[in-house]
Amino acid sequence: METVPGEETQLVPREDMFWSCRQTILEEMKKKFSQIENAGEEPRVLCIIQDTTNAKTVNERLTLNLPASTTVSKLFEDVALKAGYVNGSFHLAWGNMTDMVVLDQSSEMPLSDSGFEPGKKNFLQLTDKDGEQPQLASGESGTVDSSGLDDNTQDRFIGPLPRDGIVGCSNDYSSYSYASILKSETGYVGLVNQAMTCYLNSLLQTLFMTPEFRNALYNWEFEEGEEDPVTSIPYQLQRLFVLLQTSKKRAIETTDVTRSFGWDSSEAWQQHDVQELCRVMFDALEQKWKQTEQADLINQLYQGKLKDYVRCLECGYESWRIDTYLDIPLVIRPYGASQAFGSVEEALQAFIQPETLDGPNQYFCERCKKKCDARKGLRFLHFPYLLTLQLKRFDFDYTTMHRIKLNDRMTFPEELDMSPFIDVEDEKSPQTESCTDSGAENEGSCHSDQMSNDFSTDDAVDEGICLDSASSTERVLKPKSLLTFELFSVMVHSGSAAGGHYYACIKSFSDGQWYSFNDQHVSKITQEDIRKTYGGSSGSRGYYSSAFASSTNAYMLIYRLKDPSRNAKFLDAENFPEHIKRLVQKEKEAEEQEKRQREIERNTCKIKLLCMHPVKMVMMENKLEVHKDKTLREAVEMAYKLMDLEGLVPLDCCRLVKYDEFHEYLERSYEGEEDTPMGLLLGGVKSSYMFDLLLETRRPDQVFQTYKPGEVMVKVHVVSLKNETIASPVSVRAYLNQTVAEFKQLIAQATGLSADTMRVVLERCYNDLRLLYVPNKTLKAEGFFRSNKVFVESSDSADHQVTFTDSLLWKLLDRHGNTIRLFVSLPEQSPGLLANRTSYQKVGDESEDSFGGTKSSTKSVEAILEESTEKLKNLSLQQQQEQQDLGSSNSDSQNTSDVEHADSLSQEVSTASSASAVDNRELENRIQIVGGSGTASDPENQLPSEERSDSDVNNDRSTSSMDSDILSSSHSSDTLCNADSGPIPLANGLDSHSITSSRRSKAHEARKETWDTAEEDSGTDSEYDDSGKSKGEAQYLYFRAEPYCQEDGSGDSHKCLLVHVDKRITLATFKQKLEPFVGVPSSQFKVFRVYANNQEFESVRLNETLSSFSDDNKITIRLGRALKKGEYRVKVYQLLVNDPEPCKFLVDAVFAKGMTVRQSKEELLPLLREQCKLDLSIDRFRLRKKTWKNPGTVFLDYHVYEEDINISSNWEVFLEVLDEPEKMKSMSQLAVLTRQWRPSRMKLELFQEVVLESSSVDELKEKLSELSGIPLENLEFAKGRGTFPCDISVLEINQDLDWNPKVSTLNVWPLYISDDGAVVFYRDKTEEPMELSEEERNELMKKESSRLLKTGQRVNYSPRKEKALKIYLDGGPTKDPGQD
């Protein structure tokens, strides 16, 4: 910019240049604003990118909101700029897929055509390219080390990390494994956690980072012919170590190693102790390495020796035994102590500190020949080369009887000097001596007189480090000062005694750097991070410090002896043995093969494939996996073979088309694109697509139709008003910009109908019918979508002149949309043969009073039952005679029947001929006649009038109490008239019968009864007429029933109905329609809905419609009186407090609103006598509240249902038989169930009821004292826990219940006894408990466990035992043949 001198020699811009620049800036701003404005109109794509190339960036997200027209290559540029990487040094892959699909960086396709969805989150992953991490763009600040990370910002973490895809990740990543793509910057490889194998991963990484163990493992060679490599533990460990050293993966699997252990997948879900695993694995390796150079490897590296001794303090005589050890267990907090040890050194000192045996614990000295004071202790003889210290953080709390974890702080040094722990002889002893084990026996004794001269020499030679590979001269010269060990592994446990997580902090002997090996995550850590694993808190070391301490702390420490002559270095690849080099090459080839396979997977399109089988005519489904470079022609051939169409259809008669299965919509065909690659055709490589492919077939003489993008699919149903039928659909393709007039012409060509008189009705959604009457309106404006359904009718009838909603067409379509198909199972016991009945409606007037339908009727339920039963008997005796008599009178019955066929839909609109209105017609193609029809003369179709097996009664106890009133006075033969033929027999001998819009006789409507309970005051009655029928229901009475036979499991057929019915009719009307088929009035049978699990529930709300039912629902009809207004069906159960099963079903009964408890008891007495054989008097049983299986409030005789007692449908009540007359007379009384506990016999006595006049504790104790004879001052009681019967183990009752609470009333804490049915245990506090041996206790424990499991009670004292950790040397455990 040009400047000129100004005042005070300052350079200022020239004015013309200033204005020129300003103008340029304004133009640029306008241009930018214009771009922004245009971009605002364009859809935008939200891209969320996760950088998975680095452990410290794995939880970070890059977010880009780009226009949908942005190219893929521009996306790579923007990501590189935002992430700070060089473009081209990384991959971008879809992140919400199981298989990683990489984007093509060179693609110039817009994002909208590359699988990105505008307006939604598109998850991507930034991954390394060709195994190399992305290059950082120039200008990055900070000094980057060889690992590619700044030392100052080096990611440091120790402790448990979240599982991939759970914390810090979107749900779209939950199924994605990072193990194969993340590469640790440390150069070390992690191990994948199978489920709960973190303890195994920690130990394996420690062994891998031990040079002596790794090198020895590499020197062992596997002999192919001698053993199966799958079950060889050393070979699988060798393979694992080779992969850990050479693999480029982020983490590798351990499944091959665990398979060699003989473990199955269930072992991955068992967490074990890492120290236990170490011992078991070492044992297995020793067994596998027998008779090899590595046979003594474990002992050479990890085994030490110590002496267990007892020394007499009077004569100095010492008895000892030599023991070996692989690890030293160090106590965190001594038993009974309130303070934990502060360091490993303190714990080691306590480990070898001798204890004095005196008093009753005196030691019998063989020299003194008497019991003497003695000193017992341990003395280290040899320390192993690799010293393992186990910090015993898991303990058992005898107060709570639970395992606990001690989180107290315990420090440990990086270098541990073990020389102070060699000589711990008590110099104050009268005679001090030492007994060595230089090749001696493992057990022996010695004394000072024999060994005093050699004491100092032996001590120097035999106590120290055991170097089996060194010469005897070197061993003698090894001084104590060289017993310095270097810490290199800390195995950390995070969690509690119930479970947690293991990981390892390991120091590399190559560079001295500490690393955290946390399953698949490996990262650098510092010495400060190691100090964080000491545990505890910065506060005191008191008794309760552990409870408030961190749960992440060191559990196992491994030290290595600092000895330059023995300290080994790791073998590098050049120095590998030949067999290891071959193994490395083999694993590298396998990894390359896996990489190639993964590359193929990345380029494979996986899409759902559908095909309509040309012979079976069923839609087949499969998954087509095709490489993106395969052409459409090749893909068709693959799909042809996949669907197994060879021999059925020629290959040239098949093609692939784009298909939307949800909408059943053919989106487009691919004419002329046979050589186009599938990747381009499908819009990129994905593992799932928003559309499917359909393999379409044709006959050789047919031609494929062209499906163009933008077309919509229309299924056209032709409607016939004359036949009242709706034809199967014809598929027509149209465009959204077509007019209705053009669309009619298109339909006319496809169906042959006249477009001039055509009416087109679009069904946009359920019950939404729209008449397309505006010729110039487009289909899009009318609401057409991808897939549509229309109904067309073309005729010259007068129905065209009627308003659409009043027309016959609308009513037919409305009926079509609301008709459902139901399977109705008729009752097996039907009152007489249908051929023996006259019209039900005819006798309806005569039998009016017998049903109690008149207002003056006061007959009880029992009276009706007896009357109906008697009529049934009379009918059964006269059947044969009536059959002959009624044969000639059926025609008369037909003419005089009050039953009239309903008017057809055409009769409602016009006065068309009534002769055609009663024909059996098809509503639509999907409503078909199922099964055959029977006749009354068929003896197989004739069911006996009164037969019911015991099994039927038992299987249907819910209706058994009502079976005696199933018959009413309508015992004459019922027949419906057909306008064109003679009488049609009904019910079990059914012929096809159709009722469309029937009108009931006035006499029958008068007998209609409605159901009502708690809803009777809901205000809905005004919507219904006196018959319970909806006032607007007349148009919804379509009903058609057809017989069909249903096979049951035994091979017998059962008579059923296939019913097509308008689901808007009420249950009351539906039952009326079923009356002719069942053979009894609707008030004398019940409707049960059958659900998928074969559970049945009674439908009782007569005013509700069938809208909750759907096609093919099952209904069971059971005989029995339906409920009247204000009545409730009640299930009565007997309460048996001292039985193993205290709840036993008795009968079904009917209780009415306003009835007293005594009245209901009177109603129950005959039922109990007849059905349950219980002969009771009314004052020797009571009714009480039932909540599940818990007895509650006792109902008094004067209580009134709905006033004093809330009652509802399907209510349940307890009936309790009394040994004496009822004592409960008032609501102020309290009935308590009591049970005596006898500690001396380890037994609970039977329940006994105590009735209290008040809630006083003193009264309760007095009653219990009177009942049991226990003195009042010795009586203790406790409230039972949980629900009735409050079962508890006799081994726990003493300590688990709150005995003798300090309260004066029962209705306060901790008792809260304010209702009947509470359980109270009581005992004599002076009664001593039975002494049990261990065997008796175990036996009693088993019995109690079995008893409590049967009653469904929780057994607290028998927790689930942990599965023992085992490594199987023979390939796996042998399954017990007795096990399933």
UniProtKB/TrEMBL annotation:
UniProt record, GO biological process: protein deubiquitination
Chain segments carrying region Disordered: 422-453, 840-860, 875-1029
Gene Ontology cellular component list: cytosol; nucleus
Segments forming a coiled coil: none
Residues annotated as domain USP: 189-562
Pfam family, one: UCH
CDD domains in the cross-refs: peptidase_C19C, Ubl_ubiquitin_like
Residue stretches of biased makeup (Acidic residues): 1012-1025
Stretches with biased composition (Polar residues): 431-453, 885-897, 904-917, 935-944
Gene Ontology molecular function: any one: cysteine-type deubiquitinase activity
Biased composition (Basic and acidic residues): 945-955
Biased composition regions of type Low complexity, renumbered to the chain: 958-974
InterPro entries: Papain-like_cys_pep_sf, Peptidase_C19, Peptidase_C19_UCH, Ubiquitin-like_dom, Ubiquitin-like_domsf, USP, USP47_C, USP_CS
Transmembrane parts of this sequence: none
Protein name, entry field: Ubiquitin carboxyl-terminal hydrolase 47
Gene name linked to the record: USP47
